[in-house]
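User: I'm putting together notes for a lab meeting next week and I want to include a structural view of one of the chains we've been expressing. I don't have a solved structure, so I'd like a prediction I can at least talk through. The sequence is below, exactly as it appears in our construct file.
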Amino acid sequence: MRITMTELAKRLELSQATVSLVLNNRDKNRVRPELAEHIRKVAREVGFRPNRAAGELRRRKSHTIGILLPSSRNFYFAELVADLHRTVRRRGYSPLFAFWESYEEIPNAVESVLDWNPDGLITCEPGRLPEDARLPAVSFYEEDPRFDCVKLDLETAVRLQLEHLRKLGHRSVAWLGIPEDHRYGHLLRLAGDFGIAIREEWQVRAPRDLD
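Assistant: Thanks for the context. Below is the predicted structure for the 211-residue chain, given as structure tokens.
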């Protein structure tokens, strides 16, 4: 069973204030070094771990970043999740993920993250955030005038793909995806520049909810 700071202070026969100063690294010039070392030694022995959540709540900070994305079963977003997890942790925050399988599930995902009062948000659906959201947020791919946005140069990406397919000797390509995807529009517009045909019978336009 996890020991509390109150119980630890009783075991040490010290005030909770003194123990708190040491375990929160605020003991310099306030607690004798040998006593501070003794407190830390006993805390390690009994497996004490400070309740960071309670401390952050008192400071009105959660040190979490809410991350709202489509299902991580999508291989693209799975890779993005891994990179975001690593980056957020490296910067001293804890990532709080919420996913959705369909667009109808987005409101519940947003609510589940906001309930934890994160310090900031990352999402690819900024338009689904509340109008009164007073959190710093970064949008991935989709723009929203309220927030900063990280965008991809999709036209250049499609040009490079078409150039590569041309060099491999391909002259016709298929599309598998949603028609609203901006890459599809670039594909239709640019394919002719590379002598590549877009055969209608090869185009598979998936419903948006299956993206």
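A couple of points you could mention at the meeting. The mean pLDDT is 85. The radius of gyration is 26 Å.

User: Perfect, that's what I needed.
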